[in-house]
Amino acid sequence: MRVAIEAASLSLSSGGLARYTSQLSLALARWHADDEFYLISDQPFSMPAGAPANLKRGAAPRNAVERRWWLWGMARELNRIGADVVHGPDFAVPYLARRPSVMTLHDLSPWLDPAWHDGAGRVMRRTPLLLKMGLATMVITPGEHVRQEVIARFQLSPDRVVAVPEAAAEWFTPVETRPESPYFLFVGTIEPRKNLPLLLEAWREVRKRAPTAGLVIAGRRRADAPAIPEEPGLRLLGEVPDEQLPGLYSGATAFVYPSLYEGFGLPVVEAMQCGACVIASPALRETAGDAAIYAENARELTQAMLDTIERPAWRAEWRERARARAAEFSWQRTAHQTYAVYREARRRFDK
User: Fold this and answer.
1) In a domain, 262, yes or no
2) Phi and psi for 241 in degrees, rounded to 5?
3) Which of 3, 8, 276, 308 is the most exposed place for a label (fewest CB within 10 A)?
4) In terms of domains, do 115 and 37 share one?
5) Is residue 283 in some structural domain?
6) Same domain, 32 and 129
7) Inter-residue contact 107 to 263 (CB < 8 Å)
8) What is the rounded radius of gyration, in angstroms, for the C-alpha atoms of the chain?
């Protein structure tokens, strides 16, 4: 099989979309070595590090017509490489249904609260139209909860939507670290949905009983992100190179992820695979299972954070639970399940 994967998300320097596209394409190429996978985009992007020979870069648009990517440019590139299936990992598929296509719908956040996205207008208009017209042969979601949401909102046939969980990259492993003082950690895109004002509120309460407890926030700041003023004990790292993330996760007293809504929550699994104790909102329950401490409000979050400082044995138990939970996910499994969706898309399209 020859599969084309739209790779515009790889032009982003970090974030879940980029991680999903890079790790999925690598896993597909490694575990399906007899097939060819092409990353194609109208934007400049970097190939994933360590790409096997059967993971290739497609050509960029060559003229003004091809720069109309989703209508003409992608169609011409798909013809050039002879793609059997095209996968849109970022809420879209081609407008011209000339071959089987698969769309990944990571979550419904663009449609649930306008305050969560100030630049999602195109997705909000385009994705429902593509689905209504049947241009996505199959749809992938990262979990069953989002699958049910997608089926209900867009009135899709249930057998057209498949839940395929994601995973942490294999290089997220525990690192021996000795932090000078305890710190709580958030890693992710800085945006309204991540609910960082709640984390800051709880952390300030924690500091009243544990003055040395710091807070580290790492991630790309989106244009609509809430303001986070500097203050003692707070470190705003911005984007962090991948090689530094395992150490950050491993050294944290707890990884805290108070997001209001998630499709999967990849940083939670990354933290768990590094052996971090995880405190999360109930929005992460499908992903984290019984391996995270859940907090819904500032009082619960403050208490959970204090407990991880004051009860080290209890914290160690949660670290073990986290590693066990992370072991249930793998990109190998994700690749095999995604490949099965490609095959089903071909079967349906050829009927």
Assistant:
1) yes
2) -55, 145
3) 8
4) yes
5) yes
6) yes
7) yes
8) 21
- Supply the CATH number for residue 134's domain: 3.40.50.2000
d(C-alpha 129, C-alpha 96), whole Å: 13
From first CA to last CA, the distance across the chain in angstroms is 18
Distance CA 203, CA 19 (A): 28
Looking at the structure, tell me whether residues 94 and 197 fall in a common domain: no
Query: 114 and 131: one domain?
Result: yes
DSSP string, 283-338: GGHHHHGGGSEE--SHHHHHHHHHHHHH-HHHHHHHHHHHHHHHTT--HHHHHHHH
What string of pLDDT tens digits covers the 351 residues of the chain?
999 999 999 998 778 899 999 999 999 999 999 999 999 999 999 999 999 999 999 998 888 878 887 778 898 999 999 999 999 999 999 988 899 999 999 999 999 988 888 777 788 889 999 999 999 999 999 999 999 999 999 999 999 999 999 999 999 999 998 898 999 999 999 999 999 999 999 999 999 999 999 999 999 999 888 899 999 999 999 999 999 999 999 999 999 999 999 999 999 999 999 999 999 999 999 999 999 999 999 999 999 999 999 999 999 999 999 999 999 999 999 999 999 999 999 999 977
3-state class percentages of the chain: helix first, strand second, coil last, to nearest 5:
45, 15, 40
Residues 148 and 63 in one domain: yes
Count other Cβ atoms within 10 Å, centred on residue 339.
18
Q: Is residue 176 part of a domain?
A: no
State the total domains in the chain.
2
- Taking a C-beta distance cutoff of 8 angstroms, is the pair 69, 61 a contact? yes
The whole-angstrom separation of Cα 54 and Cα 277 is 38
Burial string for 42-78 (b: 16+ CB within 10 Å, else e) reads beebeebeebeebbbebebbeeeebeebbebbbbebb
217 close to 228: Cβ distance less than 8 angstroms: yes
What angle, rounded to 10 degrees, do the helices at 16-31 and 331-349 form?
Answer: 80
Question: Residue 277 belongs to what domain range?
Answer: 183-326
Do 335 and 219 lie in a common domain? no
If asked whether residues 25 and 129 sit together in one domain, one would say yes
Tell me the C-alpha distance between 255 and 240, whole Å: 16
Alpha helix positions (H), 105-143: 109-112, 121-132
